[in-house]
Amino acid sequence: MPRYLVxxxxxxxxxxxxxxxxxxxxxxxxxxxxLEGVTWLHSYxxxxxxxxxxxYDGPSPEAIRKSAADNVRGHHTxxxxx
Length: 82
Description:
Layout: E1 3-9, H1 19-35, E2 39-45, E3 51-57, H2 61-71, E4 76-81
Antiparallel strand pairs: 1-3, 1-4, 2-3
């Protein structure tokens, strides 16, 4: 399956709740990704928490873009094939 890198920019910085709330948020992302056949592998976050670089496997660039848009509304997203 093709591998993709998705770069996101967060003007206010990335904030993921700690504990159960953060785990639930992550489960929601995984479930939405599954709808498009997309699998998240790992992510990198910049020191200032304003940019993330996430690596995914997915069937097509369109599936990656759709999952990214469904998961992070209102943030700039750019995807690239690896």
